[in-house]
Amino acid sequence: MPELKRVLLIDDDELSSELISEILNSAGYITEICHTTGELYDSIKKQEYDIFIVDLLLGSHDGIEIIRELRQKYPVAIIFTLTGLNASENLSNAMKAGADHFFNKPIKADNLLKKISELETRILHEKNVFNFNDIVSKAFNTSSNPVFITDRNGDLYYANNHFLDVSGLAASRIKRYNLYSLRFDNAPEFDKLINRRYYKHVENRSLESRFIVDKGEEIWYNVIINPVQTSEDSEKYFFLFQLFDITKKKQMDNFILSNEEKFRSFISLSNDGMALINEEGLVIEWNSSMSRITGVNMKAVYGEKFWDILKWVKIDFDNESLDQDLERNIKYALKYGMKNESRIENVSQITHNNGQLVYIQYSLFTIRMDSGFRLGLVVRDNTATVLSQQKIAAQNEELSQAYVNMEKLARIDPLTQLANRRDIEIRLNYEKRRVTRHHNNLSIAIGDIDDFKHFNDTYGHDMGDFVLVEIARIMSEAIREQDIIGRWGGEEFILVFPETPADGGFTICNRLRENIEKHNFEFKGESLSVRMTIGLSEYRGSEKMKDTIKRADIALYQGKKSGKNCVVTN
Length: 570
Description:
It is built from 21 helices and 24 strands. By secondary structure, it is of the alpha+beta class. A five-stranded parallel sheet has the order 2-1-3-6-7, with helices on both faces.
């Protein structure tokens, strides 16, 4: 049953509203329908709701305004918009008004229920797997570039102030947004990229994307996507999106392609390196910024073959068709244009004339002329950005490792180095799912050191700690690889035997008991004998796991009453 279950559906289409109501009610929600705004206001006076579904076209009333009013009254409620209009015309205003998601009619049942479930889970069970501490927040919030973080599903977990300003998203509701809620024109490419990276490799990737702001204005970004591993589990990744404004570069590139004469007139004023190569492969333009980036003086390049100059700076285009035979392929491009594309854009590195490594972003393109093509090259020095990204990546790695260490500490008993109660409970839930799926046996035992208080009272707590550590070692060495052992509390230990019935568990427990009884415990000149009583139970498929543990505890109590140093099965 859903925890957020009261739904108010505001839709003047009776057929559509009845269909949606049936879908929700069948999933355990309690749905009320309003066909007019009057019914809406009457309903919210009488009853509190968890989820609202609002049709944007509600008679003569503005659905956007209704969403805005509902968001003010219900700041944490889930609000969906529903309409038959084109999504691109309404998404921006609906999201700004306070909507969490947008559905087009006719609505699909599985899409609706899945999205409600996802938002409900994120609201009720705050995801803390990624801990944004003060250092990270300050680093990103003061960044001059927009930054946001998603999981592999594209759900947002963080956005810095710069991105919030650009996107107009509400900081208080950032975890309800998804990549598809943003106004990037290639959000599906982001989705494919993080999933492809997620399954195969974790190197950084970049992608150019256009972001639509208010009144149709657009900003072009070079989006650097950096995966961050947050635990030892290799399948748990978050993705750091860093946005670098390349609007001016895009405008410049378009200008270059449309008007070569204007390009040649302002090339010397650009902060980006620019070069123009004629049909014979000779450099005819090489601005001062290109000289600064490469260290090659403009006087040295005039009249030189372009492919020779590229060898001077040791550029790697990371493009097989260019790198295999640089001279032949450039000559081909000058005669016939680029193969299958109008330009080649990528990042690379070159060696400056002073020997320093320079990280660049380049665009290589052809311009059609009467006698063939001319070749243009635009180069941007990204060294400072790359070094900054490397620093952030190193910080992310440190944070990820710190999180892994914290996870270990949170699940390990510091004295015995066995799994603690929290970790055992997590593993028991996993084993319960396995039993339910495969119908295997599962046995659980609780072992308690006999007369443990005597050791503490007679020899001190150091002796008691020594006994606990020794017994943890003896049992860990004697159990099977698939068995689980942990410290349950005080002098109690818990043992979990997967795929093992009670008689098999009894055999293992009795062997452990005998090993402990035979062991000579020597500590600071004292030699002691220690014994243990163990209670055992087998999991019954119809009961809760805590009931199985309780039965093992009862068996342990029976063993204590009947003389200790024994194994009792319940």
